[in-house]
Amino acid sequence: MEPSQVLIAPLITEKSTILQERGKYAFQVDRRANKVEIKSAVEATFDVKVVSVNVIMVRGKSKRFGPRFKKRPDTKKALVSLRPGDRIQIIEGV
Asked: Could you tell me the CATH number of the domain that includes residue 10?
């Protein structure tokens, strides 16, 4: 899998911005990607050294639309820890 296909989007939440101060970054990744592919994709895309990768599978919620129920798609999140001193500039102007 190519690095551009592995990383879908950075996760910008209140918790993830607090973790960025500790050198940890959260990304939404392809559901088929494994830890090795995620690590190589982050290193190739942002030119940093990854220390560890934690992966979380998030199940889609069931939502009600009138009389029917629909299920949102399942997603996969990755929490990437970087070497001390390395940074990723996700938001422009920071």
From this structure: 3.30.70.330
